[in-house]
Amino acid sequence: MTTSQGPASLNNHHRDTLLKIFQHPTSHNIEWRNVVSLLEVAGTVEEGREGKFRVQLGSEIEFFDRPKHKDIDTQQVVDLRRMLLGAGYGPIVEELEAKGTED
């Protein structure tokens, strides 16, 4: 079990994963292990039986199944976007996207 450390503790790897989650069109190459790593920093992740993960970001709790392959599916991306926006990550994503377009 991991506890929230807040947005400031995101490293480059976490920021890249966050940007992939919010990428349009939706990326189909977002690895589950990278998502779990991000979620462990952003909130609380508990692995249960049969590959089920309980994720809490802010006050919201969602249950995710471990994907059969290494990448998450489109519905998981949608659910993660909703949770991350609800937890206040929208401005961080906008800032990261703006930095990317300045180059």
How many strands appear in the DSSP assignment?
Answer: 3
Low-pLDDT runs of 5+ residues are 1-6
The SSE string, one letter per element, is HHEEEHH
Number of domains: 1
User: Any idea what the radius of gyration is?
Assistant: 13 Å
Task: Please give the alpha-carbon distance between the first and last residues.
Answer: 38 Å
What shape does the CA trace take? globular
Strands in their spatial order, largest beta sheet:
1-2-3
Approximately what portion of the residues adopt beta-strand conformation?
15-25%
- Helix vs. strand class: alpha+beta
Q: Mean pLDDT score, rounded?
A: 89
Into which percent range does the helicity of residues fall? 40-55%
| Helix count from the secondary structure assignment | 4
Biggest β-sheet: count, sense, barrel?
3 strands, antiparallel
Describe this structure in words.
The chain has 103 residues and is an alpha+beta fold. It has one domain. It contains 4 helices and 3 strands. Strand 1 (44-47) and strand 2 (52-57) form a beta hairpin. Helix 1 crosses helix 2 (32-42). The protein starts with 11 loop residues before the first helix and ends with a helix.
